Amino acid sequence: MIARENNVELADQFKKVGRLHIPDFLTQSSAEVLYKNLSEQTQWNLVWNNDGKHTDMDFQAVEKWTEKQKKSLLEIVYKQAAGDFQYLFANIPIYDICQNDRLQVKFFDQVCDFMNSELFLDQMRAITGFEQIDFADVQATRYCRGHFLTEHDDNISGKDRLAAYVLNLTPIWNDAWGGALVFHDQNQSGGGFSQLIYPCFNALNIFLVPQSHSVSMVSPYAMADRYSLTGWLRTRL
Q: Looking at residue 192, what is its pLDDT?
């Protein structure tokens, strides 16, 4: 599935800046199969941060709410986002599903197996320099209109995350639609950002943990959903 291996050059770039953008990571056909399967999935969670508590809701059920109900939820979500960590997007926790055997979907098993294959993990070890990477957890994410993820650094005690990754799987995207992966530079006076990456089909982004980043809100006039496989390269030590 992996289209290219140029690990020495990639490792050098990663060492210099702590993050890396790899275009055409998979073969074109593999990326297209992943997108097709994600876009055809009907069961998604709508996830958000309810005053510090991760909350999962049935995405399809919420879509059937009245406009008044949807507006009330957004008001709660946006109020917290104004001054605290917040997120709103659809996801499928593939790694958790496979580990707990909660849902038998062959596609999820195949994704989890690939992300935890020696082919993938060995390349991640070579690129990041982290020989102690033991496994990759993975989730499918789907950012629709109004979805976002505010600034955070992925550093959660007990998770043993070494690096994060985002495999972009949206075939057509207009930068005006938002949904950018933003890396924030805390050394700049007054904030700002050091790099902004819009979704690019079949591109893999890898970055060190902890590292401050966010996903900008998908515009209300976006004509597509932002699909990706995301997760963390972790150790069991």
A: 65
> Phi/psi at 169 (nearest 5 deg)?
-135, 35
135 half-sphere exposure, CB direction, 13 A CA radius? 11
Question: Which secondary structure element, helix H or strand E, spans residue 213, and what is its range?
Answer: strand 213-215
Check residue 104 and give its pLDDT: 62
Angstrom CA distances, 66 to 73, 129, 142, stand at 11, 50, 22
Q: Report d(CA 173, CA 228) in Å as an integer.
A: 13
224 by DSSP, 3-state: which?
Answer: coil
| Identity of residue 50 | N
| pTM (global) more than 0.90 | yes
Q: Please check whether residue 186 is in contact with residue 143, taking contact to mean a CB–CB distance below 8 angstroms.
A: no
**N-terminal to C-terminal alpha carbon distance within the chain:** 29
How far apart, in whole angstroms, are the C-alpha atoms of residue 235 and residue 237?
Answer: 6
Q: Which amino acid is at 185?
A: D
Residue 162 maps to which CATH number?
A: 2.60.120.620
Question: Domain span at residue 110?
Answer: 7-41+105-234
Overall domain count for the chain: 1
- The pLDDT of residue 8: 86
Query: What is the residue whose two structure tokens read 């992966």?
Result: 181
